[in-house]
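We were asked to recover a plausible sequence for a given structure. The inputs and outputs are reproduced exactly as logged, with field labels preserved.

PROBLEM: sequence recovery
POSITIONS: 840
GIVEN STRUCTURE:
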């Protein structure tokens, strides 16, 4: 028997006991009534019976006693007449025996409870004693043959006591009879009661049974039935919600326990079901995720089992190979799958070829990858990965786009995006390979090209037109060269060509000339008629170099020369060009040292106000006090300082010194400082100017910065912002060398300059050339209408001065007044202004 079975047995047995108990409990009131009645009845009967028994035994004793008295009496009366002693003795003995019997009967009578009253008993005992004593006297008289005495005693005392005793006995006897009668009637009455009680008890018992059954049903059967019904319902519907009866649940007995265990079981079942549902959902979710992951992979995927049968595949696999889903099935042998794709339609290779390769991979059981080109040209990267269970995982990735992108990137890395020509990197590679392959009779020429005034096109027509021009140039260049030659764009407006020929330098000369001709034909770019020239430098192996770097450098130097010689032409490299380049390098080194060693000095040239003839300013002009070459003028080093970037440091030095010296001057005249366009690029300019002013204590409006149009050419926005910043601080800004730049007038409107300095080239020929006069007039007119001061530079003659006065120029500067002088002479110049008047 199982534990559960045993338990249920106990429960049932217990329920049986309970049922009885319940029945008994239900019958209790009826039974109680019946019992009380019964007990009363029994007690009554018992009492009556006891009484009856006592009375009958008392009556029996009394009769006994009476008989014995009569017997003794019969013996006693015989004694007076008896003379035979032996008989007397025999009577005496019989009398003694009767007496004894009498006594024991009296004792027995006394022992019967509640029948004979104690005083009556005492009387009987006393009479009996009297009889006994008298009887002994009679026996003794008879023994002594005193017959008369004996007779007298018999008739006298003995007879009297005998009668007395009889009377007592009669009284007691009638009392006993009364008792017997009472007991009998009581018994009869009890019997009647008993008859009447039986139906009551039966009815009680019946009621108890019915009530018990009802209770049993209500208490045990109904809950159990409901429990069973619910169990059946749960089994049928599968739903685990059960009705809760709090009264039953709170019950302390087995039914309560049964319900609670049933509840517990159902709760367990329900939570188990929930858990099952949850894990099912989780499994489904995992499956869906896996499915989603599989089908959203960018790679196609197939998994094969250890028998080389298809287990899993994804959508991407189908789409890569253009397979209809119904063609594949689980358990499909790998060969069948290969046959679907092999032999031309998808893979170029035959099924046998692919299977053989597959077999080889299978036997090696290591990861491997391969790249395949499909019949339609797509590139597929295939990875094979053995899996632990003995099968294979194969992934397929369409890397066509990636390869294309990679190719594009590598193309971009080696080509110019705008013109699609090879860039410097690829150009050098070409040079390398060409140089390596060069035959004995061949030589290689490198042509470096630079468009003339391309910057002007860019600045005036805008970058889009500039770009169009570069593309057009690239197209024309490509048309100029042979197939074996290579043209490249090295950057900006620089191009280069590699030419291989057996007849150098003649072939290179022809090519250069052709390029110049072709490129100088006007371009039509978005309704703009553009003309651009080109300068070309040529270097040829082996004389001008034998490696790419050397050749490019030589061609570059030749280009420099071509530009210097008036543009629109070509030059071959000459060793002297290299020498000049080396001189520049030396100069750069020297400049660095000079800056470090403090070899620079400032000269000051006065600027005089027309009309008052007073010095209003001094222009600071830098000089290099070279230890061997003496005082070097700016034209000899400014350009090298600009190319090497040293101008930023030199310019800062000039600013600091000019401000410091001006602060010591006796009159508050201004100091003008020239700024290089490169100083604007360095972004430190504002800070440098501010700290120069701050360090010297010079009033900001005493500092005048001279900038050229070329400063405004580059990064105009930033330059203008810088100028505004400087101006807001109080510093004055002058436009220097006006008239030598590109589009002079527009720059004047772009910033509110404080002064325009008319370039000395116009002043120089003022008296001889009418156009110079016209320009001077235009500028002074513009200046006065805009409220800007105009300074004429390079005034050397009084004639020039007179003309300038006529044109309304406000200030003059030139040798007519003073050349730039050392700082020490400034005070002298300030004091001797009248001298200029005399000159004028
Ligand atoms: P610039 O700014 O036009 O300076 C005026 C130049 O004209 C000075 O030459 C001056 O000596 C010269 N000059 C003055 N009056 C006459 C004259 O009547 N006739 C002739 N023929 N020339 C005259 P310098 O000192 O040789 O300076 C040349 C250029 O060097 C300057 O031209 C300026 O552009 C540049 N420069 C000079 N100092 C500095 C400097 O500190 N910083 C920068 N960035 N450039 C400087
Ligand atoms: Ca100047
Ligand atoms: Ca100037």
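RECOVERED SEQUENCE:
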């Amino acid at each position: 028997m199982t534990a559960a079975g045993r338990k249920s047995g106990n429960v049932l047995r217990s329920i049986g006991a309970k049922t009885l108990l319940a029945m008994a409990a239900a019958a209790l009131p009826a039974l109680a009534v019946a019992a009380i009645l019964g007990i009363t009845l029994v007690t009554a009967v018992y009492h009556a019976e006891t009484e009856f028994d006592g009375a009958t035994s008392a009556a029996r004793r009394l009769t006994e006693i009476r008989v014995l008295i009569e017997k003794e009496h019969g013996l006693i009366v015989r004694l007076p007449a008896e003379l035979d002693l032996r008989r007397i003795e025999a009577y005496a003995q019989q009398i003694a025996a009767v007496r004894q019997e009498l006594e024991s009967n009296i004792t027995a009578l006394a022992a019967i409870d509640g029948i004979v009253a104690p005083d009556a008993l005492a009387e009987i005992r006393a009479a009996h004693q009297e009889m006994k004593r008298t009887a002994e006297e009679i026996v003794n008289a008879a023994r002594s043959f005193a017959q008369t005495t004996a007779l007298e005693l018999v008739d006298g005392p003995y007879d009297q006591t005998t009668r007395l005793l009889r009377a007592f006995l009669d009284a007691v006897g009638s009392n006993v009879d009364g008792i017997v009668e009472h007991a009998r009637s009581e018994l009869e009455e009890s019997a009647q009661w008993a008859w009447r009680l039986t139906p009551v008890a039966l009815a009680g018992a019946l009621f108890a049974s019915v009530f018990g059954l009802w209770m049993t049903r209500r208490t045990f059967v109904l809950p159990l039935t409901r429990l069973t019904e619910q169990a059946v319902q749960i089994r049928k519907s599968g739903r685990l919600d059960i009705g809760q009866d709090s009264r039953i649940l709170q019950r302390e007995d087995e039914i309560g326990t049964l319900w609670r265990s049933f509840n517990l079981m159902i709760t367990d079942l329900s939570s188990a079901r929930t858990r099952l549902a949850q894990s099912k959902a989780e499994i489904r979710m995992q499956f869906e995720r896996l499915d989603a992951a599989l089908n959203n992979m960018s790679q196609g995927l197939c998994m094969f089992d250890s028998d080389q049968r298809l287990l899993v595949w994804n959508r991407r696999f189908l789409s890569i190979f253009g397979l209809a889903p119904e063609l594949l099935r689980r358990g499909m042998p790998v060969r069948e799958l290969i046959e679907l794709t092999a032999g031309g339609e998808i893979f170029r290779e035959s099924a046998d070829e692919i299977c053989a390769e597959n077999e080889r991979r299978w036997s090696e059981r290591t990861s491997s990858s391969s790249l395949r080109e499909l019949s339609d040209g797509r590139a597929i990267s295939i990875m094979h990965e053995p899996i632990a269970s003995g099968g294979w995982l194969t992934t397929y990735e369409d890397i066509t786009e990636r390869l294309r992108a990679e190719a594009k990137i590598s193309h971009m890395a080696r080509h110019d995006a705008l013109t699609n020509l090879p860039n410097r990197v690829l150009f050098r590679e070409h040079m390398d390979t060409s140089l390596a392959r060069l035959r004995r009779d061949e030589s290689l020429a490198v042509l470096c090209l630079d468009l003339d005034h391309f910057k002007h096109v860019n600045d005036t027509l805008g970058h889009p037109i500039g770009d169009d021009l570069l593309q057009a140039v690239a197209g024309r260049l490509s048309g100029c060269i042979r197939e074996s030659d290579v043209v490249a764009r090295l950057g900006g407006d620089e191009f280069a060509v590699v030419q291989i020929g057996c007849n150098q330098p003649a072939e290179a000369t022809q090519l250069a000339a052709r390029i110049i001709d072709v490129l100088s034909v006007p371009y039509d770019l978005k309704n703009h008629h553009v003309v651009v020239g080109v300068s070309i430098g040529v270097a040829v192996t082996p004389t001008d170099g034998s490696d790419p770097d050397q050749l490019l450098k030589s061609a570059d130097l030749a280009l420099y020369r071509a530009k210097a010689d008036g543009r629109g032409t070509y030059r071959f490299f000459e060793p002297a060009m290299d020498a000049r380049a080396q001189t520049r390098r030396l100069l750069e080194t020297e400049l660095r040292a000079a800056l470090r060693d403090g070899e620079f000095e400032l000269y000051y040239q006065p600027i005089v106000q027309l009309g008052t003839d007073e010095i209003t300013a001094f222009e600071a002009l830098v000089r290099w006090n070279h230890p061997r070459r003496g005082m070097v003028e700016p034209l000899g080093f400014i350009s090298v300082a600009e190319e090497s970037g040293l101008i930023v440091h030199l310019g800062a030095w000039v600013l600091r010194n000019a401000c410091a010296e001006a602060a010591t001057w006796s009159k508050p005249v201004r100091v003008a400082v020239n700024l290089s366009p490169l100083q604007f690029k360095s972004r430190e300019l504002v800070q440098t100017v501010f700290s120069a002013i701050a360090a010297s204590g010079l009033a900001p409006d005493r500092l005048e910065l001279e900038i050229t149009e070329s400063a405004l050419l580059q990064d105009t926005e930033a330059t203008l912002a810088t100028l505004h910043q400087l101006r807001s601080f109080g510093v004055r800004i002058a436009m220097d060398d006006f008239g030598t730049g590109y589009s002079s007038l527009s720059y004047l409107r772009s910033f509110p300059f404080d002064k325009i300095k008319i370039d000395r080239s116009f002043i120089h020929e003022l008296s001889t050339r009418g156009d110079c006069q016209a320009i001077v007039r235009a500028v002074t007119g513009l200046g006065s209408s805009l409220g800007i001061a105009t300074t004429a530079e390079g005034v050397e003659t009084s004639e020039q001065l007179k003309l300038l006065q006529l044109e309304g120029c406000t200030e003059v500067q030139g040798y007519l007044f003073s050349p730039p002088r050392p700082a020490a002479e400034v005070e002298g110049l300030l004091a001797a202004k009248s001298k200029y008047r005399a000159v004028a």
